[in-house]
Design goal:
By secondary structure, the protein is α/β, with parallel strands linked by helices. 50% of the residues lie in helices and 13% in strands. It folds into two domains: 123 residues, Response regulator (Rossmann fold, 3-Layer(aba) Sandwich); 66 residues, Arc Repressor Mutant, subunit A. The protein has ten helices and five strands, in the order βαβαβαβαβαααααα. The protein has a five-stranded parallel beta sheet, sandwiched between helices.
């Protein structure tokens, strides 16, 4: 069972998501929270696999709550909820450890698919939307020394991650097996101390591996 925590300051939104998710045979809503501080506390108490996190909440907003969860409960994947797909808050949440984002008016099948995607450890990144977010909000920072620890092949894989490629697409482009690509991705995340593919995409642009506006 996929254990889910829903954090939103509107009870009707929480109730709607709960009804959709609990209709799935492999999903269980283990808690709800009306603000970010409560979301962190509930996550520690309920041990969810996935947290649906509204960005704009009282007491502690969703960005700060996502950062806190990344620190105290990194095994819980965070999907941020927003009303706009081009939103600086979404970008900050991704920087803080979110595995992807959803619009609040998401269709039920897409919500279910998103939860399953991040529950199995993948990031939920629509390349076109993620690229527009990055190009609008990216803040360049010096490349960390850990980047030098990557092999040439790992740099190639990292660049393709930044371009939003899936493991299958990377494997096809580099003439590798998907298992080999998955191993490379795991090593890259470990070496760069990144949580998942979402943070890898942000890293690629902020460190200058890719420049906003480069062809994908």
């Amino acid at each position: 069972m996929i254990r889910i925590l829903i954090a939103d300051d509107h009870a009707l939104v929480r109730g709607g998501f709960r009804m959709i998710l609990e209709a799935q045979p492999d999903m269980e809503v283990v808690g709800e929270a009306g603000d970010g501080r409560e979301a962190v506390a509930q996550a520690l108490a309920c041990s969810p696999d996935v947290v649906l996190m509204d960005i704009r909440m009282p007491v502690l907003d969703g960005i700060a709550a996502t950062r806190e969860l990344s620190r105290v409960r990194p095994s819980s994947a965070v999907l941020v909820l927003t009303t706009f797909d081009l939103d600086e808050y979404v970008y900050e949440a991704m920087r803080g450890g979110a595995s992807g984002f959803l619009l609040k008016d998401v269709d039920p099948p897409d919500l279910v698919h998103a939860v399953r995607t991040v529950a199995r450890g993948d990031a939920l990144l629509a390349p076109s939307v993620t690229r527009r977010l990055i190009e609008r909000y990216v803040r360049r920072s010096p490349a960390p020394p850990e980047l030098e620890d990557l092999t040439e092949r790992e740099r190639e894989v990292l660049t393709l991650l930044g371009r939003g490629r899936s493991n299958a697409e990377i494997a096809q482009q580099l003439f590798l097996s998907e298992a080999t690509v998955k191993t490379h991705v795991s090593r890259i995340l470990r070496k760069l101390r990144l949580r998942d593919r979402a943070q890898a995409v942000v890293f690629v642009y902020e460190s200058g591996v890719l420049e906003p506006g480069e062809p994908s």
